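Budget justification aside, the reviewers requested a transparent look at the raw inputs and outputs of the sequence design task funded under Objective 1. We therefore reproduce one unedited record. The lines immediately below are the structure tokens for a 137-residue chain.
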């Protein structure tokens, strides 16, 4: 394969809506997933998780990273589709399993819709990477 097709957060959100998976219940609390058209300096898009009751932003997933570099480019070129993402949980919501569940929801819809896909986590530390792969450990 020569070049992969990048999956966007807009694509993922459309799938979440179609599959009626924009709402989550985690530890008895209800959350809702929404997108934001705001782009950061890297032209990344955001998908936020909101507490449905308080309307607080709980966490976000972002994508749109540049991913040039030999090992990463080689990996991407072996798959038809890719989703390169990072994420963050806001302080009061950390260590409660919320981000793990949010990522599971998003990655499960990606894997249900796309063949030959690679998901790449742009994490700054090992602990953060483990959050994303808990489902498969």
């Amino acid at each position: 394969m020569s070049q992969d097709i990048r999956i966007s957060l807009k694509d993922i959100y459309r799938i979440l809506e179609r599959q009626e998976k924009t709402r989550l219940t985690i530890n008895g609390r209800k959350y809702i997933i929404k997108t934001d058209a705001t782009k950061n300096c890297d032209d990344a898009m955001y998908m936020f998780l909101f507490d449905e009751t308080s309307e607080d932003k709980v966490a976000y997933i972002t994508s749109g990273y540049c991913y040039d570099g030999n090992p990463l480019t080689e990996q991407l070129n072996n798959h038809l589709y890719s989703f390169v993402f990072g994420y963050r949980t806001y302080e009061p919501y950390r260590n409660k399993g919320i981000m793990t569940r949010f990522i599971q929801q998003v990655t499960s819809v990606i894997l249900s819709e796309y063949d030959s896909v690679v998901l790449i986590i742009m994490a700054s530390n090992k602990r953060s990477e483990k959050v994303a792969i808990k489902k498969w450990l």
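The helical segments are 9-18, 70-77, 98-113, 126-133. Residues 98-113 form the longest helix (16 residues). Computational costs for records of this kind are itemized in the attached budget.
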